[in-house]
Write a structure and sequence with these properties.
Blueprint: E1 13-14, E2 20-22, E3 40-45, E4 48-53, E5 59-63, H1 70-78, H2 83-100, E6 125-126, H3 135-143, E7 154-155, E8 166-173, E9 176-184, E10 192-195, E11 213-217, H4 220-226, E12 229-230, H5 238-246, E13 250-253, H6 262-271, E14 274-276, H7 287-294, H8 296-305, E15 307-308, H9 311-326
Parallel strand pairs: 11-12, 11-13, 13-14
Antiparallel strand pairs: 1-2, 2-3, 3-4, 4-5, 6-7, 7-8, 8-9, 9-10, 14-15
Length: 327
């Protein structure tokens, strides 16, 4: 693919979280004051790139194998990239899908699912290990066994009131920003405040073409712990079902290990999906707890070990789990 860093403004720098920052290129195009404080952030990943403006809230991203979205094209245009090169980037991405998606025709028929594009909340910053104000947020993610550089986590360390002490996690779908959730680190409730559209499934853009399996979990940190997808509650609605089916992968549902999580088991049986309820050590309630206690590899291995597709065997697992919970 094209070397995107070479297209960025000459005055840019890379911070401790792997993001490249520079004066945002979007603000004056959107009726805002020109950025002069390096409030634009760009990060490449193995599957594409992200751009986020913490001055006006603009967000664009791109996933290899998919067409450039309207906002991704806008961003490239504002960088001064001509239309010919933009089309070359788009064509190369689609060729990648053709080369690595040879089994696409063998997948179940995909039904189009759409979400409305959204902007980021204002006054956010990318996590940066060189900024002492960011340390409590980075340490929180580390306490959850999460790599703060692996996802575009955002914070507002100077904010007050209910906007203080939060980590903002963007929601993307097919390269578009479609919402976000804020996880608050204080003791007040609710712990999460979300801008989430009906039917959204977190983590779809993190899935890779070469992966044959997808883990379906309840929470965002559970999904990030094992590269899975999160339905964000203990049920799966019709739109979410279609989003997951469109991945064309073998599905394994890992419910939270509490009585409320059994509702997700019922839905998985109804949909014909496999379920895994590992016999984890006492005190482990969910996938993220397991990763914190046992590590990622051991957690994934136990999920696969206890994976069941037969509904009668799933019921046996459920009874064992409920008995453990009630003892």
């Amino acid at each position: 693919m094209i070397d995107m860093i070479s297209l960025l403004p000459a005055k840019h720098k890379r911070n401790g979280s792997g993001w490249t920052t520079f004066n945002s290129v979007c603000c004056h195009h959107r009726g805002e004051s020109q950025d002069t404080k390096h409030r634009g952030g760009f990060k490449s990943s193995g599957e594409g790139w992200y751009y986020a403006c913490f001055n006006c809230g603009y967000y664009a991203s791109f996933v290899i194998g998919r067409s450039l979205t309207f906002k991704a094209r806008q961003f490239l245009t504002w960088l001064g990239v001509d239309m010919r090169l933009i089309e070359e980037i788009n064509l190369e991405s689609l060729r990648h899908r053709t080369m690595y998606g040879l089994l696409e025709s063998a997948r179940p028929t995909m039904h189009k699912v759409e979400f409305e594009e959204r902007d980021l909340p204002l006054a956010l910053e990318l996590m940066d290990s060189t900024n002492p104000l960011h340390t409590p947020y980075i340490e929180y993610l580390r306490s959850r066994s999460l790599d703060y550089t692996a996802y575009p986590y955002m914070i507002s360390p100077d904010a007050g009131g209910r906007l203080a002490k939060r980590i903002v996690i963007p929601f993307t779908y097919q390269g578009m920003l479609v919402g976000n959730t804020a996880r608050f680190l204080d003791d007040r409730t609710p712990k999460y405040i979300s801008d989430m559209q009906q039917g959204y499934v977190f983590g779809v853009d993190l899935q890779r073409e070469s992966w044959h399996h997808v883990f379906v979990v309840e929470g965002i940190f559970d999904a990030l712990s094992v590269d899975g997808v999160a339905v964000l509650h203990n049920d799966v609605n019709t739109k979410q079902t279609q989003v997951i089916k469109n991945l064309g992968k073998t599905v394994t549902v890992i419910p939270d290990q509490d009585l409320a999580g059994m509702k997700l088991v019922d839905k998985a049986i109804e949909l014909g999906w496999a379920v895994s309820m590992p016999e984890w050590p006492p005190g482990i309630k969910d996938v993220n707890d397991a990763v914190i206690t046992m590590g990622k590899l051991a957690t994934v291995l136990t999920i696969l070990q206890f994976r069941e597709k037969n509904k009668y065997k799933i019921e046996i697992q459920r009874k064992k789990l409920v008995k453990r919970l009630q003892s």
